[in-house]
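Help!! Second protein's tokens look totally different from the first
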Amino acid sequence: MKIQPSQFLRFVCVAVVAGVFVLAGVGKIWMADADTGGNMVARYLNSPQAVKAVGFAEIGLAMWMLSFHLPRLSASVAAGVLVVFSILIYSEIQRDKPLPCGCLPTTPGMDNPHEIRSGLWISLTRNGFLTGLTIVSIVLAPPANRRDA
């Protein structure tokens, strides 16, 4: 069985997006108890249990994407999650005293609002790139009536 280049590209796109979701989810689960509200995720969710729940949801979404079951739907959900996260990041950039994202495990200690905003813009750019990858995987997914993909 020969793998088509488009299907390989779709696999790479899904693997990258899923990998970032796993990394982000594990980071949230691992740091939820240690964090006392020093990042944007903790600010919006307001409890370690909610932060952990988001982490587990991100890992679950990654596993769904990697299962290739309903690939267009899983990629669409991932794109929607990334858009929501991006809106929250952008709203944090607009604050007078923004907090670091907390989206991925990072080194603590960013106190300067300029450094924090710079990090938030990087997160926003990363989310845009990941959303683009999800769109590519949606376009390259086989039609719903095909079972051989």
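Here's the second one for comparison:
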Amino acid sequence: TGEQLDFRAYSVPFNFYIVDAEKFELSYEVDSRTYKFDGHFGDTLTTSLGVIAVSRRDNFVPLHFNDETFSKRNYRVRFNTMSRNQNRYLSRLSVGLARPQSTILQVYLEDEVPAKALDFVNMLIEVYLADDVAQKNKASAITRSFLDDQLADITRDLESIEVNRERYKVTRGIIDLESEAQMVLESIREFDEKRAMNNARVAMINQLEAYVTENSDLRDLAPSALDITDPLLIRLINKLSELQGQRQITLNTGTANDPMLTPLNAEIELTRASLLENIRNSRKGLLRKDEELNEEIRNLNSRMQRIPTTERELLEIERRRRIQEGLYTFLLQKRAELSISLAAAESDTRLVDSARLHPAPVSPTASPCCSDCSSRRERYF
């Protein structure tokens, strides 16, 4: 492997000779001058073209190279840049439908080295499937991060409230609330929980609006995890996510000037505007509900004024504790749902068959201007 290479190393072939299971010889030619190096496997060689590390692979068989009659000891090595390797494989790779109207794709690769081509195609599919799952999990992971932040804040509030509650009971000598105060507490608890849930939904709607406004990719967002139940809102989110996916595919297979992008971008902006309008309407509905709940709570607060001061102060502490507990349980449930979706995530794509060798070579073929070709290519699919 090339640890640190000079740019010239990518255009110079290296001759590699394995002396035995422990030693090797490395040579190359630059500007009509030959450079030779003797080394042991595991050594790092400092050459005029850079630093090169030489190590044995797992399938290296020492017994073969310690046998003097074994002949396969000479190798020619070339270093390639990442972009050169990408371009090389892209030029030889082709993907097409197995049959017209089929949902099955066939992947073809032509290469001179059968084992390398088979490994490449199998790894390409493996990475593609893993990336598909990673993209699905990314949406849940982003939402989970938001829930984790909320849970951390609520946990700190609960700990503080619990300490104040116990301290108040000790200093005032109160064991529990009287029946009248308990009844008021239960009534307020119901409306407080509703208001807390409503406020949590407002926060989630605000998060969604920020994502859409900042032109973020909505494939990174999970509506169910944000407790979004409005059918129209969900439909618009899914539509915008689908359009953004189509746009990304078009960019990956074409250029930024692709004429197909113009109508696609226009539809994305139209859908985004409709989604933002729907988000604002949803928030207005949630805020109206918040006002109704606040009115009910104000009525109950007036009843609290008739309760003795000591009990009323304890009731207020109990009330804050129960609000936070309810909100904590709600967010914890949402995070558990996300964890299940992360564990169960799988790709929508299925591997029908692993890569296999074409029964006959597909190259070389004779041509009018050259009937003698030095390379032999095999096809894998």
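Reply: Different proteins will give different token patterns, so don't panic. The longest strand covers residues 23-30.
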